[in-house]
Amino acid sequence: MTTNPEKISKIYLILSQTYEIFENTDDPWMTNGLSSNPFKSLVSVCLSTMTTTSRVVKACVPLYEKVSTFEELLKLEDEELREIIKPVAHYNRKTKNLKVMAHQIITKFNGEIPSNKKDLLSLQGVGPKVADIMMNFVFDTPSIAVDTHILRLLNRLGIVKTSSAEIAAETINTITPIEFKKHAHEWLIQHGMKVCHARKPKCEECVICNYCSYKTIG
Ligand code: SF4
């Protein structure tokens, strides 16, 4: 494992010159407005766990035609909510979680999504990844959320050596220079999804292969 600041900075510098930030892309999250306000951001991210983007879009677009506040979400019948979000994985559990979360936000936080990580983590169905995404993208507090793509990439680069996304998030949030922190998640996830594939990484196309101990090319 390396936490060499020079190596980390070099990797971020190259990735920042390679990838656009999300708001400048035609990513389906952007084009479908899945995070166009804090309500949508939180609900979309909660629905996105263990689910592909296209399935999140299939669930969220009709959902946001029906509801735009936590009060409206709470009023929606469980059966109807379950039916709408059926495209996403674990829709039964997510139906219950969304209802409890909406109730918590209304009763404990006066209808406002809490803007600190501790309170976010107290919401039903909100884990560290969702909390970090909310802190970074909604509350403007640079925070790197680690998903499966970023976890794989960080391990291959030798920056972490763990199967725990939570431990990897602690490490990468600690060692990332502040100037790269705001957009680090966006660059890392794009590289993980587009180049450093799980089964067959495209090492021959990789812009940071010189910094990778896992690379499959000479
Ligand atoms: S060299 Fe290969 S394994 Fe390493 S980061 Fe690049 S694509 Fe991934």
Automatic annotation (TrEMBL):
Domain HhH-GPD: start-end pairs: 47-194
Coiled coil region boundaries: none
Gene3D superfamilies: Helix-hairpin-Helix base-excision DNA repair enzymes (C-terminal), Hypothetical protein, domain 2
InterPro entries found in the cross-reference section: DNA_glycosylase, Endonuclease3_FeS-loop_motif, Endouclease-III_FeS-bd_BS, HhH-GPD_domain, HhH_base_excis_C
GO molecular function, one term: endonuclease activity
Family matches, as PROSITE patterns: ENDONUCLEASE_III_1 (PS00764)
Keywords, ordered alphabetically: 4Fe-4S, DNA damage, DNA repair, Endonuclease, Glycosidase, Hydrolase, Iron, Iron-sulfur, Metal-binding, Nuclease
Cofactor(s) this protein cannot do without: [4Fe-4S] cluster
Pfam families found in the cross-reference section: HhH-GPD
Family: Belongs to the Nth/MutY family.
The protein's name in its UniProt record: Endonuclease III
